[in-house]
Design a protein that fits this description.
Elements: E1 3-10, E2 12-13, E3 16-17, H1 19-31, E4 32-39, H2 47-52, E5 57-60, H3 70-82, E6 89-93, H4 96-109, E7 113-117, E8 119-123, E9 126-133, E10 138-143, E11 150-154, E12 170-173, E13 205-209, H5 219-229, E14 232-235, H6 237-241, E15 262-266, H7 272-275, E16 283-288, E17 301-304, H8 307-321
Parallel strand pairs: 1-4, 1-6, 4-5, 5-12, 6-11, 7-11, 13-14, 13-15, 15-16, 16-17
Antiparallel strand pairs: 2-3, 8-9, 9-10
Helix pairs in contact: 3-4, 5-8
């Protein structure tokens, strides 16, 4: 049994639909007969991509002129519900805008929101969410029992994004009501982090360093190896908290969830919090001098050795081949 209709809050960066939106659309096709999107902006710019991944319609707010998207989108969805729209669920990514929208919509509709989900299913006509708890050590299934719409937030990389081959979605205007003082805030500037090479979110190869590197200067080995492999550098929470690298490098439950083809963990012991963010990698290579380190429990290839000897040897070998 499937749901009748799911609305997906679609997000885009620089005109490109986000990967997490496409992941959610792919899953939503399994859960509902009809999948539609809500978009903050000009729906025509994303209709083709959203339709390719299964959306039949895009409800678009039109130009929001620098407003924080969560406020008008939540208000617009709530107004649409009051006007008779009745999706069974509203699903969004666990992003800044997604969380803002979901929280406001939860209050506006007096409906429960379930966050941090990594899987969704339908059982007996009810939506069931799966969420990791205790640092990912256990999974909890939560079933919605009250009146809809169910409001759900999904973690990035929870599903594989697969196109359905659908035609461009139809675009329909979504009226945004007066939001009062809450809608007065404006985005005046956005910080775009400078980087070379692939982003951590989308990289096919990730090289991550941890406390086993010993000191901040040694992280340079991770960056050197990353450049040689065309990889993205990552980090454990320990060295992010220590100030060695920016938070944007953090992999784990409170950082980014990655699913690269190859994940190299250098000097990372493998705390549960970290492994939640990378254990979905296809191939995991661990380098640690402690043979009992938990990271070896999920590694496909384990190297028991001093990271200060292993990484320089790898860098030297790769340089010799170039």
């Amino acid at each position: 049994m499937t749901l009748s209709t799911i609305w997906v809050y679609a997000e885009a960066n620089d005109g490109n639909v986000t990967g997490t939106t496409l992941e959610i659309l792919t899953k939503a096709r399994e859960l509902a007969d009809t999948v539609e999107c809500v978009f903050a902006g000009d729906g025509a710019t994303v209709a083709a991509t959203l339709g390719e991944y299964g959306a039949s319609k895009v409800y678009a707010t039109g130009d929001l002129s620098g407003r924080l998207a969560g406020v008008p989108v939540a208000a617009a969805i709530a107004a649409a519900m009051a006007g008779g729209a009745a999706p069974d669920a509203v699903i969004a990514a666990t992003s800044y805008d997604g969380r803002d929208m979901a929280g406001r919509l939860s209050v506006a509709l007096d409906r429960t929101v379930i966050t941090n989900n990594v899987d969704l299913s339908v059982d007996g006509g009810a939506l069931v969410c799966t969420e990791p708890v205790f640092g990912g050590a256990s999974m909890v299934n939560t079933r919605f029992t009250g009146a809809g719409p169910n409001i759900v937030l999904v973690r990035p990389k929870s599903f594989a994004a697969e196109p359905s081959g659908g035609a461009a979605a139809a675009v329909e205007a979504l009226a945004v009501p007066d939001t009062g003082a809450a809608g007065a805030a404006r985005v005046t500037n956005r910080f775009v982090e400078e980087r070379s090479g692939p982003s951590l979110d989308d990289a096919a190869i990730v090289v991550a360093g941890g406390r086993g590197l010993g000191e901040a200067d040694k992280y340079d080995m991770v960056e050197q190896l990353s450049k040689l492999l065309g990889a993205a550098p990552g980090a454990s929470r320990a060295i992010v908290d220590a100030g060695w690298v920016p938070y944007s490098y953090q992999v784990g439950q409170t950082g980014k969830v990655v699913k690269p083809t190859v994940y190299i963990a250098a000097g990372i012991s493998g705390a549960t919090q970290h492994m939640v963010g990378m254990k979905g990698a296809k191939n995991i290579i661990a380098v640690n001098k402690d043979a009992e380190a938990p990271i070896f429990g999920v590694a496909d290839l384990g190297i028991v050795g001093d990271v200060h000897k292993v990484l320089p040897a790898l860098i030297e070998a790769l340089n010799a081949r170039s």
